[in-house]
């Protein structure tokens, strides 16, 4: 049995395609192999953006922290624990102004923790995590997988880069794109995603 960490982040909530398809993938993987699912819905329960309490608190021992700092660090430790315990990480991300939502950015800001998930040197970052499979489910109104708009996809490249910073490079990407091009285009994008998800579950 493995642990699945399901992270959904679209501000559109339950109706978001990225949320629906990410959950569908998690459910199918869990059903196939009896995996446990830990869900972190960043739209329903948004994380605070990091502030002085987090930045200063993580440099102090528990005895030195204020109550506010201790609360901020406890949240980050909880998120890191969920990440460390996961064998499979599924992220649902809807493109907002060419990038992931600020909710998802806040999650990364909490879990990219020097000395815990990454270490830095003059040679750059070295991720401290390994042996975790990432499934990235992204949605966008436009089509960014190829052509002139490919360079404007700051969503998937950025998310993949942040996972790589902490050492996680094994990423399967499910794109649901072009959903703003009309009902037929949206349906075709969803159909392609379903086929891809079924193939990934079969291969898992």
Question: Features of this protein?
Answer:
204 residues; alpha/beta; Rossmann fold; 5-stranded parallel beta sheet; 6 helices; 41% helix; 21% strand; globular
Short synopsis of the structure:
The chain is α/β, with parallel strands linked by helices. Helix content is 41%, strand content 21%. The protein has helices spanning 17-33, 52-57, 67-85, 102-111, 156-165, 183-203, and strands at 3-8, 36-41, 88-94, 118-121, 124-127, 133-140, 171-177.
Low-pLDDT runs:
none
Q: Give the full name of the CATH homologous superfamily.
A: Flavodoxin domain
Biggest beta sheet attributes: 5 strands, parallel
Helix content: 40-55%
Please give the count of helices.
6
Total domain units = 1
Q: Structural class given helices, strands, pairing?
A: alpha/beta
Rounded to the nearest angstrom, the distance between the terminal CA atoms is 13 Å
**SSE order, as H and E?**
EHEHHEHEEEHEH
Shape: globular
Q: What radius of gyration results from the CA coordinates?
A: 18 Å
CATH fold name:
Rossmann fold
Overall mean confidence score, pLDDT: 96
What is the CATH top level name? Answer: Alpha Beta
According to DSSP, the number of beta strands is: 7
Strand content: 15-25%
Strands ordered across the widest β-sheet: 2-1-3-6-7
The CATH architecture comes to 3-Layer(aba) Sandwich
